[in-house]
Amino acid sequence: MDKEERKIINQGQEDEMEIYGYNLSRWKLAIVSLGVICSGGFLLLLLYWMPEWRVKATCVRAAIKDCEVVLLRTTDEFKMWFCAKIRILSLETYPVSSPKSMSNKLSNGHAVCLLENPTEENRHRISKYSQTESQQIRYFTHHSVKYFWNDTIHNFDFLKGLDEGVSCTSIYEKHSAGLTKGMHAYRKLLYGVNEIAVKVPSVFKLLIKEVLNPFYIFQLFSVILWSTDEYYYYALAIVVMSIVSIVSSLYSIRKQYVMLHDMVATHSTVRVSVCRVNEEIEEIFSTDLVPGDVMVIPLNGTIMPCDAVLINGTCIVNESMLTGESVPVTKTNLPNPSVDVKGIGDELYNPETHKRHTLFCGTTVIQTRFYTGELVKAIVVRTGFSTSKGQLVRSILYPKPTDFKLYRDAYLFLLCLVAVAGIGFIYTIINSILNEVQVGVIIIESLDIITITVPPALPAAMTAGIVYAQRRLKKIGIFCISPQRINICGQLNLVCFDKTGTLTEDGLDLWGIQRVENARFLSPEENVCNEMLVKSQFVACMATCHSLTKIEGVLSGDPLDLKMFEAIGWILEEATEEETALHNRIMPTVVRPPKQLLPESTPAGNQEMELFELPAIYEIGIVRQFPFSSALQRMSVVARVLGDRKMDAYMKGAPEAIAGLCKPETVPVDFQNVLEDFTKQGFRVIALAHRKLESKLTWHKVQNISRDAIENNMDFMGLIIMQNKLKQETPAVLEDLHKANIRTVMVTGDSMLTAVSVARDCGMILPQDKVIIAEALPPKDGKVAKINWHYADSLTQCSHPSAIDPEAIPVKLVHDSLEDLQMTRYHFAMNGKSFSVILEHFQDLVPKLMLHGTVFARMAPDQKTQLIEALQNVDYFVGMCGDGANDCGALKRAHGGISLSELEASVASPFTSKTPSISCVPNLIREGRAALITSFCVFKFMALYSIIQYFSVTLLYSILSNLGDFQFLFIDLAIILVVVFTMSLNPAWKELVAQRPPSGLISGALLFSVLSQIIICIGFQSLGFFWVKQQPWYEVWHPKSDACNTTGSGFWNSSHVDNETELDEHNIQNYENTTVFFISSFQYLIVAIAFSKGKPFRQPCYKNYFFVFSVIFLYIFILFIMLYPVASVDQVLQIVCVPYQWRVTMLIIVLVNAFVSITVEESVDRWGKCCLPWALGCRKKTPKAKYMYLAQELLVDPEWPPKPQTTTEAKALVKGNGSCQIITIT
């Protein structure tokens, strides 16, 4: 049964889960209720914390189809459990028609097409979701997504919109007319309200959730225990501390909810116009929108309340909310394959592939372009949490837990403390029984030892360092939406950089153009803005082939397009409605040269016939635009010169892509060499092409033609050469990272040779380093996939393999330190296509290439994400720095993603830098390292604090004594809290160092440090405890004891006159207690100083003025009350009078303790790494990180790196293995 009933939902996706069915069991419920009563409610708490136990304890297994409760478990490494209740959606509440006619209106749910034809097939679709007779659909909600029962696949599945399984043809044929009112009401029933509801929980709800945290329950238990033992003050202090902690936590959680609510509420209810089947326009609230509705985009723009695909008109959209990129984007209508001559009717619509035609939820439509009498329309494809914005909000509401070694080790550390507490618990019980102590006292004292060992201030102490780091980051303009990641940033050892706008200046400068005439390159020209070229096709292409638009009179759009358009000095005008009518309804945008550039009109006789027919004004109208596509690496437009009969097609894009679409006879023979010369110098090269279109192509045909019909058989016109300058700070920042042993990788959408050139210029690849280009080819015509290896500098000599200099083959350098292994002198470079082929067919080569891959060119957004994953798979801690535009996936996937966006809250990445400079990367790593070391310091200090106090109490229990209420209070509040919150204030060290902080608490040096301090503290406490008993004046203390008289000094008595009248029930006042209290109080301060590490990750301790001041003040205060007792202080702290020479002896014990502690800690720091393995007799271990282990292996691999002009082939017919062989081709 188990095997049958374990199903998977969201298979192959990030949120894949196993699903199990359960039904409520009454007898189990009765037993659990009894258990809850017997355990005083503790069992209920346990079941609240553990959903899996809760379901298994109260339910029995059942078939998923008929169950009442589902238990879900994520399939990732966290294996988290969730449970959800099955609900019933009754379709009988549907007001319009009978079940039979309803069936054709229900979407198919699996690959939802939302079909509307009442066919037999569609009638059958109702049963996919519902129990046919009752017309009821079973569903459950998990993380704001509804999962409906689907009879076809016998599993639950979430309801999809028009974003899956719908062809572009059917979008036009079946969905463009709109919905009937009945159909709309029916879909609304299924899809629910179109809103991204971020409910701000009430303070009471949040309070209950926060208070039921296991830690606060433990604190509540501690407070009750202390109250029964009359430790009221300390209990009250903990209550106050907990209340402050809960209130601050509630405030920050609620603030985040409110911020998120405000962020999504901007579009929650706006009025929108939708088209119904009979072409009437109905105005409804945006919350009533459903997939399939045809929405009218208003002329003055709007904030999109859903994801919709444009079927009519053009929109200018600001997508900064999603991408962090504030450059307006032009969206055009989805090509209609059925109208196209070469119609590709079977192409499926996908919001990602067709993002240039999709308006995403939450983005702002600034302006719309339309043609006279036609509305700008878009079909709703996704609503609510299914939209791109909804998915973003879900990822913020339900984040994946951060898997970091520090946190895993923290739990192990707590378990160790619990084990220590267990030993103390047993010891206390045995000791009390032997001393015939009352049962009540035994219970209280033995439980008390547990509350001492697990420190109540631990969570607050741990978050302090991160909060301070976040505040420091904010000061330098780095905003953080995921504070837990600051610690992880301290571990980064590889950073990926986007090129354009990140390493280089955002804007490109036009260096010049190189035109082609008669298939030959002319010499490069600098000035494009001249009379000679004004009417050339080359300039016409530069004037029309772009996505620029005017927003409030200012030209805006892609920076590259802007530079290109500014270079020719033309004027762009958005035509008004009247002008559009004048131009036969064809020209929404017009470009024309300034009058001074046009040649003066000459008599008709001297002109060609064609020019004579031209009107006096020369202007070009842009009829249709095919936006730039990163997958196709090009954009094109259809334009018409005013007065011309034929239209022109212009195209620009990556030279390789453009040349491939041109007539071969128009492409110069030396095209490849000229292109290579420019790209090697680091220029960004764009190619232009043109062709005259047939006169039969009317405006209406052009509006619906596919881009493939236009983009072929072109004439190659030449190259535009753009210069992309390095940002001033780039080389220095990269040098800092290299010095700190942090690898740098370039991931760009630009061409390979340009990227390699920029990598050399900025110091990512050093002058003497070799670059090996991996060119992978997919399987073709029965041949297996293969990789050709070229050496970048010898690419031009490919035809003469014998000419390769043996010096070109890189040398492997053997390093003493494993950390330097990545610094060997060769780098791999590849483009996005090769990367995909290698991922698919050469899986065993991927780790090796990741070890030395430095340049990844022509990478699509999803390939960037795959690269980050591949690097993480070999155990790199990966940072990603990009401008946010097409790096969203990679920024989210990296351990530390930094978006260089000016928007403070770019929700696409955990970190956002307000200044668009990569200098934020070393700053973030420095702060991360400081926060990480602070966490270690605090953890070590808290461990020592609990062990010192635990040992003090255990020693005193042996004589049936304890620390006094105010002694506990003084230690916990005055010493511990002050020290913990000030020791976290050390700022980060001013520069990055090559040394890396440890990644976990459980490392040899760290454990040795903690254990040595524990032994030292226990030793000196025991020394004081047992030595005081050996003193000649020592006796078991009673109210009339007066050891001070031995000094012959009279004033000691005065401080203890009152003691005689008080009875000490708990036996607090005695010589042992006073000795242990003073020695332990100093020990807390000694370990705080010993553990407060400065260089190389944090500023030295003495620069943390608050910490220095606090420690000095506490030292002086404790010294003062020890050497010169004050009657009132002694009375409050329940300290007894001891002779002066014993006070001096205690001071000597403390000084020796301080000297030993600090010396040992310094020695561990200095020699721990090298001496510990030797002392423990360990052999040199295999490195833990895969990349380091791999680097060791590759040092002795004779086949690596591949030799120049060799080919690696994938072994045929070995599926999923990806093994390969190297064949040398001579």
TrEMBL record:
Pfam families the UniProt entry points to: Cation_ATPase, Cation_ATPase_N, E1-E2_ATPase, P5-ATPase
Gene3D superfamilies named in the record: Calcium-transporting ATPase, cytoplasmic domain N, Calcium-transporting ATPase, cytoplasmic transduction domain A, Calcium-transporting ATPase, transmembrane domain, HAD superfamily/HAD-like
GO BP field: intracellular calcium ion homeostasis; polyamine transmembrane transport
UniProt KW Metal-binding keyword: yes
KW Transmembrane (keyword) present: yes
Locations listed in the record: Early endosome membrane; Late endosome membrane; Recycling endosome membrane
Catalytic activity, as annotated: putrescine(out) + ATP + H2O = putrescine(in) + ADP + phosphate + H(+)
GO molecular function, one term: ATP binding
Keywords: ATP-binding, Endosome, Magnesium, Membrane, Metal-binding, Nucleotide-binding, Phosphoprotein, Translocase, Transmembrane, Transmembrane helix
Limits of the P5B-type ATPase N-terminal domain: 13-150
Domain P-type ATPase A: start-end pairs: 272-396
EC number in record: 7.6.2.16
Leading EC class: translocase
GO CC terms in record: early endosome membrane; late endosome membrane; recycling endosome membrane
Role noted for this protein: ATP-driven pump involved in endocytosis-dependent polyamine transport. Uses ATP as an energy source to transfer polyamine precursor putrescine from the endosomal compartment to the cytosol.
Family: Belongs to the cation transport ATPase (P-type) (TC 3.A.3) family. Type V subfamily.
Protein name listed in UniProt: Polyamine-transporting ATPase 13A3
